[in-house]
Amino acid sequence: AQSVTQLGSHVSVSEGALVLLRCNYSSSVPPYLFWYVQYPNQGLQLLLKYTSAATLVKGINGFEAEFKKSETSFHLTKPSAHMSDAAEYFCAVTRWGGSQGNLIFGKGTKLSVKP
Amino acid sequence: GAGVSQSPRYKVAKRGQDVALRCDPISGHVSLFWYQQALGQGPEFLTYFQNEAQLDKSGLPSDRFFAERPEGSVSTLKIQRTQQEDSAVYLCASSLGTDSSYNEQFFGPGTRLTVL
Question: What pLDDT score was predicted for residue B103?
């Protein structure tokens, strides 16, 4: 069975500092991995996805993530935080079997950006 | 609009009432998903449609939950005899193809259900 663990329910960084949001997955098959962002009162928006091509994935708004099979990790990074990055971030893995592609989400990490 | 829309955005129900939540997916999207997001948690899968066929309802928490998509476009999630533990945000997502394992799912803004 697949699962996702996000370390840290809250992360606070200063504007301009590095953003690092951690995600570890468990999967018995090669996973498809996603990062979504959720702004208050809005739906989830896809930041980036890993689908077994390049291990370093670049997404929108300057975010990127690296798939590391040996560490079963897919951490999200951004070199320089902006105030507009304050939101909740969810890591997800596709569930194999059953329906084609429903997502299994982590519990989320709320990112705060201090001026 | 071009995105997924959901209505109502907010719903307050008294315990025991029935509610119906609507999802309008992106036009032409074959796949449709419903998720439940409890406070402080990530979304959890409820059910999946491919066109009008409900192919997976393994995530529905009880037989009080029912979903339909009769014409393969708009979908309705119905909860009968609501309980306090049903309070959550209900998210709808749609995807273009039949294999959503790697395709992007587009999410609506959700319906926040509060059961008193």
Answer: 72
